[in-house]
Write a structure and sequence with these properties.
This protein is 20% helix and 17% strand. It is built from two helices and five strands, in the order αββαβββ. Among the domains are: 30 residues, no CATH class; 36 residues, no CATH class. It is an alpha+beta fold. The two termini are 44 Å apart. Strands 4-3-5 form a three-stranded antiparallel sheet, with no helix packed on it. Strands 1-2 form a two-stranded antiparallel ribbon.
């Protein structure tokens, strides 16, 4: 388990777990068993609920995709609006179906 947790992408993660035998309850592996962490799935549920309450069910996010190659079907270096922009950027053309 330590070998797995010491490699990316988990090497920088905060991990708390305890594995116990189903036969006798003996601890097989333990790492930070008393550290209290928010499970990612629970955090996503709370964030989604807050978004629904604050923004309403009809709210839609708009995401712009940018490319360093204007007017091509397959963009070269593409990034989402607001992400790192280290090149000249142009709006990528929309796919006809989307």
């Amino acid at each position: 388990m330590e070998q797995l947790l010491s490699q990316p992408p988990l090497s920088n993660a905060r991990v708390a777990m305890q594995v116990e035998s189903l036969d006798d309850g003996q601890v097989i592996y333990s790492r930070n068993p008393d550290e209290l962490l928010n499970p990612a799935s629970n955090t996503k549920l709370v964030t989604a609920a807050a978004g629904l309450l604050r923004l309403g069910p009809e709210y839609r996010f708009n995401t712009d995709y940018l490319s360093d190659k204007p007017e091509q079907r397959t963009p070269g270096n593409a990034v989402r609006e607001g992400a790192r922009r280290s090149f000249g950027h142009h709006r990528a053309p929309r796919h006809p179906g989307g």
